[in-house]
Protein: Fibronectin type-III domain-containing protein
Organism: Candidatus Segetimicrobium genomatis
Amino acid sequence: MWGGIPRSIVSASLVLLLATLGAQQLPGTAPITARAAATFDNNAAEQQLFDLINQDRAQNGLGPLVANPTLFNIARSAPHQVCGNGQTYNGRAQDMIERQYFSHQIPPCGQYVWPVLTSYGVQWTSVGENIAWNTYSPQSTSVTSANTAFMNSAGHRANILGAYNQVGVGAFAAPGPWSDGSGGGPWNGVQMYVEIFANGPLPAPTAPANAVATPGDGAATLSWTAPAQSGLGVSSYTVTPYVNGTTAGTPIVYGAGSTTVLVTGLANGTGYTFTVTATNAAGSSPPSAASNLVVPSGTYPHLGLGTAQYQLAGSDGATWTDIDSTNLAFTVTPSVNRQPPATTRTSASASTAASSPGKKAVGSPALSRRMPHSSTPLSP
């Protein structure tokens, strides 16, 4: 309780160095007593609030704001040292939860968010910040309530509908009781929301992720995950092949909708890795992490092999026999286009520790020979 009124929505807006603080009770909603931070989906909350910001702008005849990944990171949890005391503090929403305060000024130095943006290379001519917390449930109601409070307050509304071209949103839930640093609280189930608005050069994409390659005959299939919060979007991707860490050939440009491509013109028997960059009107992203190593080969694609081609010695073709002293070896005869080579390989076990006398495994599943491959919300 705060002054006899449940403190369900508390919010503040900041434009440049001027702060206006206010509190209001939203009708038709009920605060809850607890909320588990473990169930809070930061990414979903931030996406919902971002969408609501642009929905409000559209309803007022304004164009959408671009999602700036760096602003998203700062609004939630990106670490910084703007206080100059050698201490590292997390981004806005997480820091206010962890250090239990509610202010545009970062303690203990009283700095605002502007130098944090500058420290991360964000160029801006004007900046605004909205902050709010509440205890509403479910999560979607909490987000909607925060946005409603912002739009019903002149200072917050001015930021949302202001002359900005980009925004970042941060959301963070308290894992236990939380106080606001001014003597209020503690409250359970607190969810913190931060909106950072900026006007300035728009951001290039972040790097694509999860580049995974699969070998083929003189080629490789490469897939990746598009950049999260890609700002202006992606106009094209560039794939660069490498051999032993050195660029091997001309980088290849693909369209914006391509996140799985066939890279041709590769030499069979040579090991390749690949990186991917994303490009938009603002520039190009850093390259992705290198893909797994693949070796193209003329034997691809491999054919599935039936039980007649892979059988344990002593098997009748339908029932696998128990491993015993006479059935410790098996012979594998690989084939290419169903034509066996001149040699076969025989393997023998040196131990019977894996045997299970008296049990039989029925059936002989088909086998395939494949090259192994590997694959893999906001932090800078």
Summary: The longest helix spans residues 42-59.
